[in-house]
Design brief:
Layout (H helix, E strand, L loop, with lengths): L5 E12 L2 E12 L3 E5 L6 H8 L7 E6 L8 H5 L2 E4 L11 H11 L4 H14 L15 H12 L6 E5 L7 H16 L3 E6 L2 H7 L2 E6 L2 E6 L1 H8 L3 E6 L6 H8 L4 E6 L3 E6 L5 H10 L6 E5 L3 H12 L13
Parallel strand pairs: 3-7, 3-8, 5-6, 6-7
Antiparallel strand pairs: 1-2, 1-4, 8-9, 10-12, 10-13, 11-12
Helix pairs in contact: 3-4, 3-5, 8-11
């Protein structure tokens, strides 16, 4: 099977605002059916990236192809094939949920009957069918996000841009929206997910791009980035008591072991890779130490993100993105 069709391909994208550079020579790509997470603190350049790729902002440098189109010369054609969910759902409170969808359908050239039928189908899918004819003024944040997501999908887009889709939601609503996004990607849609919540990125994204101060500091799968950042694999051994000095010496003598030290319950060992763990356990047994438990620890997404942040020397916030274009 060949590589997935490339939906996004951008090279050196740069965007300046009066307050500074919001995006600095960004290069990344996304394939069909992929969920790509843009991670970083507020002001890192995530929203600017999404607006550039959807053709609503012009770059000061760089090129891009999105769905085979130039976002800035063929923006209207591109936006007929993309859907957008902004952090603020942006619904008209004078309208019902269904009327909000019908209005957007009209703007996109859909007939009233087509927009109404598809709108009801989507609201049903997102568990909002029972409120289709209710004005959104009294809706909760989670209900608004569901309606806004249905609106973004009304014209059956190939590519979705989701900007902080779970911001302001309670844990139950967050779980529901994350599940909905996962089901959309499973249908073959490409999703660009802009977020600073590591949990949802870890559940949804196949690759992540980490931005600080508008600069891309890492791009790839969490596993690839972990392998790049960590040259050692952590293993905690439960031996029922602190490892004796002769055992520590024997572990340190193994060519696969970078470091070893006793703990209250056994030993902490750093090896080259997971495959070294059986040799470590065998050495313990050979030295008469019973092994009651082995806890090999892969770095998680949070470890990866904060290691990248530390390597980038990034503060909690960055300037530039909040300035209107």
């Amino acid at each position: 099977m060949g590589a997935p069709q490339r939906v996004i391909d951008c090279q050196g994208l740069t965007r300046n605002f009066p307050s500074g550079r919001a995006l600095d020579h960004l290069t990344l790509d996304a394939g069909r059916g992929e969920v790509l997470a843009l991670l970083g603190p507020n002001g890192a350049g995530k929203t600017t990236t999404m607006r550039l790729l959807n053709g609503v902002l012009l770059p000061h440098d760089g090129t891009a192809q999105v769905l085979g189109l130039d976002p800035w010369r063929q923006g209207e054609e591109l936006r007929r094939r993309t859907g957008v969910l902004t952090e603020n759902a942006g619904l008209d409170e004078r309208f019902t949920a269904l009327e909000n969808l019908e209005f957007v359908g009209h703007l996109r050239g859909m007939s009233s009957s087509e927009a109404r039928a598809r709108g009801r189908t989507l609201l049903d899918r997102f568990d909002m069918g029972h409120r289709a004819d209710v004005k959104v003024q009294g809706f909760s944040t989670g209900q608004r996000k569901r309606v806004a997501l249905a609106r973004a999908l009304l014209h059956d887009p190939e590519l979705l841009f989701l900007d902080e889709p779970t911001s302001g939601l309670d844990p139950a609503a967050t779980r529901d929206v994350v599940d909905l996004i996962g089901s959309l990607a499973a249908e073959g849609r490409t999703v660009v997910l802009c977020t600073h919540f590591l949990g949802e990125a870890g559940k949804l994204a196949s690759r992540m791009a980490v931005l600080f101060h508008g600069v891309l500091h890492a791009f790839g799968t969490p596993e690839d980035l972990a392998a790049e950042l960590w040259s050692r694999f952590e293993v905690r051994l439960d031996l029922g008591a602190p490892a004796a000095p002769p055992l520590i010496a024997a572990l340190l003598a193994l060519p696969q072991v970078h470091d070893a030290s006793p703990t209250d319950a056994g030993a902490l060992v750093f090896t080259t890779e997971r495959a070294d763990v059986p040799r470590v356990v065998a050495t313990c047994v050979a030295h008469g130490s019973p092994v009651y438990g082995v806890d090999p620890r892969d770095p998680n997404l949070e470890d990866v993100y904060f290691a990248i942040e530390a390597r980038a020397g990034a503060p909690a916030t960055a300037a530039g993105e909040e300035v209107p274009a």
